[in-house]
Structures are given as structure tokens and as C-alpha cells.
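Sample 1 of the test manifest.
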Amino acid sequence: MDLIKVAENAFAVEKKDLPNFGAGDTITVHYKIKEGSKERIQDYRGVVLQIKGEGTKKTFTVRKISNNIGVERIFPMFSPFIDSIELNKKGVVRRKRIFYLRKLTGKKARIKEKRI
Amino acid sequence: MAGLIGKKIGMTSVFSVEGKNIPCTVIEAGPCVVTQVKTAKTDGYDAVQLGFSEKKEKHTTKPEMGHFKKAGTTPKSHVVEFRDAEGEFKPGDQVTLSVINEEGWVDVCGISKGKGFQGVVKRYNFHGVGDATHGQKDRLRAPGSLGASSYPSRVFKGMRMAGRMGGERKTIQNLKVLKIIPESNVIVVKGSIPGCKGSTVIINQ
């Protein structure tokens, strides 16, 4: 595993300042989108379901309800297309991976907010 | 031609300058030791024999030991010959990743993972007998017909059927070299290579 880290570090670009978030938190991902030669930034706001992987392979899943349809998107943590991440709410959850949220709708699908 | 012996470390993925996520394999290659130099005059062809990875003297046979002693090295567990190598080599020389050009392509050779006894769908990418209806039952992954009937009245040699899969020597050609890190003897190539983690691979350029 050690030599894999050596290889990953050799490719590393300077790390962006991402907030410290985990499952249950509500975040907004500002994602760069290329259309032809133009570049714009799209916001994607939702609840983090899980953080997975390590090193450069780390990804996180964000779930949101769009027009009554659940949408999940997986972002690579160190993708150069992530402009910035905003931490909107800290949630209180007991699990590291909160897949039970997929089955819940309406009032049940709320997550208690952590007051700091 | 330049070559090295190495060990597959594993796979990872990195981001390119354009932001693409590229799958890549990390190989620990070398340092190898020249154990013999063959020339057209003495052996009929030009080649360099390289040794890689230490092994204990008690696991080395006496004839092998003599061979390594002649080259002035410790016993090596893997010995591979590379034909028509460029450059001057002497027995006992160290060969490192400097022989491989960073802006180029390599072929990587190794022993693929053994899959055991497999059917034709996995082994040869047959499509199976497709339908669940039209008189078919329980043969979604069957090979289908093996050939005609009264003529030739036999199954042709080489007909692809179920059997042992994997565990054989495979070469993947034209893998792009993404990076060479000489201080830790690491080469990173784009894509996958045969074998499991820790298996020995041969890199040719």
C-alpha cells in the first residue's frame, strides 16, 4: 500500500480547502461544468450519504430530492471540477453510511440538526 | 529494446491535467542485476539476462549458485532474458528504471489470475443461448451447437468449450507510461496489467 501512496503523491496537485463533513450533513457542491469552451458553476445541494475510499480514490455520495424524485450523485473528493464545497448543516446520525434514508420520505426523512 | 523485471503493487486512479480520472497500475520495477550477457559469437544471439528479487542461499541449487557467483551477485528468485538490449552491459551491473523512457509506451507481461473451471460465456465471451422462451429451458449460458451432424460426424479440434481459465502468461501491449519515480523504483502505467498484487511482471519497451 505504501508504494501506491508514493505514486499518488507524485501526481498530487495542491489540495483545496474542503470543509470537514460526514454522513448526515447537508452540503452544497459547487461543480464546474464545461459546455464547449465555456465553463460555468452548478450548485448541487443535498445530504451526504457516505464517504468512501482512501487517497485519491476517495468519493462521497450526495442525495437530494428533485421534483419528487430522489437523485444521488457521487463526486470524487479530489476532482479538479469541484470548485468549492459549502457546509450548510451538520446532522445528527448514528451511522457512517445512512442508506436507510433512501426508503424514507416526507417528515420521516428529516435529519436532526447538530447545534454547535 | 529495454526491459526490466518488477512486482505488481496494485491499482489506483489519478486526475489528468484536463481533469480526467485515469485508472493506472503501480509497479515496483528493479533494481535488477545483470547475471549473464549473451552474444551472437558465443550463444548465437544477443541478449541480457537479468535477475530480480533476493532469495536465500539455502533455497538455491548448487548449479544456480555457481551461475550467480560467476556474475558476482547474490542469488535471485527471478531470472529473465531480454533479447537485443540496447547499451553496454557487464555481469554484475545494476539495471534500474533509467532504461525506460518516461514518454513512451511499454508492454507488460505477467501470469493472469487463475479463474478455475469456467463455462464458455465467461471464458470466450459467448452469448449463451439467449432466449428463455421459444422452447429453451435451463440453457441461458450454454454453448449451443458444436458443429454439423453427419458431415463431419465429429467435433473439430480447437472447438471452444468450457475448461480451465486464467493462470497463463499474458502480455498487454502499448500501455502509456504516466510517471517514473526513480528514487523508489516505481513506474506508473495507464490501465491494468495481468496478475494479482505482488506477482512478478516483465516490462518491455
